[in-house]
Each structure stands twice: as C-alpha cells, then as structure tokens.
From TrEMBL:
Pfam families for the chain: PTPS
One of the GO biological process terms: tRNA queuosine(34) biosynthetic process
Name of the featured protein: 6-carboxy-5,6,7,8-tetrahydropterin synthase
Catalytic residues of the enzyme: C44 (proton acceptor), H88 (charge relay system), E129 (charge relay system)
GO MF entry, a single one: 6-carboxytetrahydropterin synthase activity
Biological pathway: Purine metabolism; 7-cyano-7-deazaguanine biosynthesis
Cofactor-binding details, from the entry: Binds 1 zinc ion per subunit.
EC number in record: 4.-.-.-
Family that this chain belongs to: Belongs to the PTPS family. QueD subfamily.
C-alpha cells in the first residue's frame, strides 16, 4: 500500500458520508449618496457625496441546485432592502451620523433576517466609502 492510500481512503469515506463544506458567496453592489458626518471636526462635517461599493457575503452549503443562494435572489433582496433606499439619498435622513461603520451596521440590520429566511447566514457586510477605505461588519458577538 502506498503512503497516500490511507489518506485517500479517509477522504472517500468523508465524501461518502455526504459531508459538504460550507462556502462563502459574495455579491457586489454600488450606490451613490450624499452625507455629512455630524460628530466630525473637519471637511467631512460638510455635505459631500460618495459612490459607495457594498460587498455582501453569505455563508452556507450548496443546495440541491449546487448553489449557496441564487445570485439573482440575493440581488433582489439587496436591491429592495438597501439599494432602493440609499441610492441617490441624503443618508443622514436615514442613518444617524452615517460613517461607513454606521452604514454597514444599518445594512446588516436590513439584510440579516431576510437572508436567513433563505436558509443561509449573512456572514459579512463590507462598505467601501472611497477606493481605498472600507469597513467590515460581521454582526454582534453571539
Ligand atoms: N473611520 C471612518 N473615518 C472616516 C469616515 C468614515 O466613515 N469612517 N468618513 C470620512 C469621510 O466621510 C470621507 O470618506 C472622506 O474620507 P477621505 O479618506 O478623506 O476621502 P478621500 O480618499 O476622497 O480623500 P481626499 O484626500 O479628499 O481625496 C472620513 N473619515
Ligand atoms: Zn464621506
């Protein structure tokens, strides 16, 4: 028996038992919005705008269609719950002191239940405020 054979044997049993690895799936969105930071001393306390990039990551196992979640369905949820509200908005009307941190937390609140209803977990929200500045939010500690 070669050295590799016992390992291959164990791997085959593992797959034979139907063990499927959890996967992360990402979808990227963009929205344009205006804001001003109300607890800031400096240029960002003035009204200004960004083209925000939003990266939504969900965690789950591929289903009987071999999908963690249908990208089309995820797009619909994020579009309805987040993009339709924030795009071309003055974010201060919706979120208090809209730092990227507060925007990420708000988006988590809008999405986590809706995504869980689809049998997967919201893993991470990343909000890019500029090309080189982002925050990542992964929910409250359980
Ligand atoms: N931790 C955070 N810091 C800052 C936030 C934030 O949301 N969280 N937001 C801002 C401003 O709103 C804005 O993003 C300005 O950031 P800045 O990095 O200065 O933007 P630019 O990259 O465009 O810088 P320029 O030098 O003006 O080109 C600030 N901080
Ligand atoms: Zn800003």
């Amino acid at each position: 028996m070669s050295k590799e054979q016992p390992l291959k044997f164990l791997v085959n049993i593992y797959y034979g038992l139907g063990v499927i690895f959890v996967m992360l799936l990402k979808k990227i969105f963009k929205f344009d919005a205006a804001h001003n930071l109300t607890k800031y001393n400096g240029k960002c306390e003035n009204l200004h705008g960004h083209t925000y990039k939003l990266v939504v990551t969900v965690e789950g196992k591929p289903d009987n269609q071999d999908m963690v979640i249908d990208f089309v369905l995820l797009k619909k949820i994020v579009q309805n719950e987040v993009i339709d509200i924030l795009d071309h908005a003055y974010i201060n009307d919706i979120i208090e002191n809209p730092t990227a941190e507060n925007i990420a937390k708000w988006i988590w609140g809008k999405l986590s239940k809706k995504i869980e209803e689809q049998g997967v977990k919201l893993y991470e929200i990343e909000v890019w405020e500029t090309e080189d500045s982002s925050v990542i939010y992964r929910g409250e500690d359980e």
